[in-house]
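ok so for the tutorial part 2 we go from a plain amino acid sequence to predicted structure tokens. step 1 is just haveing the sequence, like this:
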Amino acid sequence: MEEKERVLTNRQMTFASKIVEGIYSNAECARLAGFSQKVARKQACVLLNGRDFPHVVEYIQELREERE
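step 2 — the prediction. this is what the tokens look like for a chain of 68 residues:
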């Protein structure tokens, strides 16, 4: 099975780094990454669910492993 090239947007990378910092709520991480106040909570949920953006969850895991 071929592994697809994953491309993360700047917002996704910022969101992931804020999640790994562990000092903000999920919604606040989305707001800090540039998502609007209105959609931040929903967008955080979508980015973290593992189905819609699995590459974001993988990137978060990589960042956590680097921190340890």
